[in-house]
Every structure is written in C-alpha cells, then in structure tokens.
Amino acid sequence: MILFAVNIRIANSLKLLIKLVKEDTFKIIYAQFFPRGADSSQYAHYIFNTFDPDHTGGITFTDFVVGLSVLARGTAHDKLRWAFSLYDLNGDGVITKDELERIVSSVYDLMGRSLEVKNSVREEGATREHVDRVFQVTEN
Ligand SMILES: [Ca+2]
Question: pTM for the complete prediction?
C-alpha cells in the first residue's frame, strides 16, 4: 500500500514535470507577485516569450529550468543576452524605439494604479520622451 502511494506521488510529480504552462496560467501566477491595481499582463507576456523562445505557446519544465538558470547562475553576458531578448520583441537582433517604448509602458503598468507616478509619468508622450532620452544616451 505504501509503495502504491509513493508511486502515485512520483507519477503526479512526473506529470508536473512534463506539463506545459500556458501563457494564461503564467500570467495568473505572475500577477500574484505584484500589488493590487498593477497590470502585469503585458510584461508577463514579454517574460513568457523569453522562457518560450521557440514560441510553442507553453513553457516546459526544461524551458523554465534553463531560463531560471540563466537568470540565477548565468554569466553577466548570459544575463545581458536574456535581457536583450526581452526587449527585442520581434527577435530581429535590434531593439527599436517602438520596442523599448512597449516595454517601458508595460513596466509602468506594473506599478499599479495606486502609484501617483503612473499619472505623472504616463502623461501623453512621456513614455516616448523617456525612450528618446535612453536612445540619446546610448547613441552618444
Ligand atoms: Ca527588434
């Protein structure tokens, strides 16, 4: 009987190991780490894509471990490559102003409605100005 129970637990663990985490589930899990009023959906989408580089629509256990390994134990170069892949939304090897603006906008969404910064920073054009300043710094 004990052996049967152990086998059931192992089988359940294996099911978890091979189960795909779909983007909707990932977004629900991700949202739990942000304050009430925050909209983490768009940023979670971008993070999800970095863990699903082949765009299969699901993160496998292997995808997750490989991604986490880069973030936790990777070299500075590995982490920069990961960050670059986060910002290079279409994967063409270039980060455009539009891509940066979309990421910055999603980061502001993470701050939540309760923060005054959202209203003061996200006035029309403010996100674009922020992105323009970043590009001015990187071009000099
Ligand atoms: Ca790009």
Answer: 0.76
